[in-house]
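hey m, so remember when u said the tokens were messed up on ur end? i reran from scratch. heres the input so u can diff it against urs
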Amino acid sequence: MASRVWAADYLEVQRLGGAAASARTDAQTETAIFWSTNSVLQFNGAFRQMVADRQLDAMGAARLFAMGNMVGADALIACFDAKYHYAFWRPQFAILRGSIERHSSTAGDSAWKPLLATPNLPEYPAAHGAACTTVARSTRAPTWAARSQPGLWRGTSGPNSPPAHWLRSLGRRGLGSPVPSGNRTV
């Protein structure tokens, strides 16, 4: 935690992830809110939309839901095993106590609050990142559908769908950044 990389991540979360952060854009706020929702609900909402978009029959729908939920569960099990192995603390607690880490640029801020409520589990690795990547890749070109079919979230809309800017930036920045929520550094 004394590295320059850690300090840069710390300062980025402090600048963008605070409840009163003026540096955070509306698009970053939308992304933070998207990342705060339950991933299983997101997946299954997307699967329902994909069934309708692809006009899948009962067998195709069952395969999509089974495969999607199986790979999502597998990714989350592996991720949570790693979370409790590393037990890395959340930014809220690091920022409140930053000055104790002996890094000159990470002064503590006892008034800092994250944009969104802090989950009661370790930060690293990112569960949404692990599960979303796995589910998105497994539904991109499934063996039971034509390769030209849209993948997860492409062409979907609704409360559990990602903001439009998130989809546009997917190729440039991976899965978007949960940093503006104030709950993650990576």
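this time it looks ok to me. The first helix runs from residue 4 to 16. if urs says something different then somethings off w ur setup not the seq
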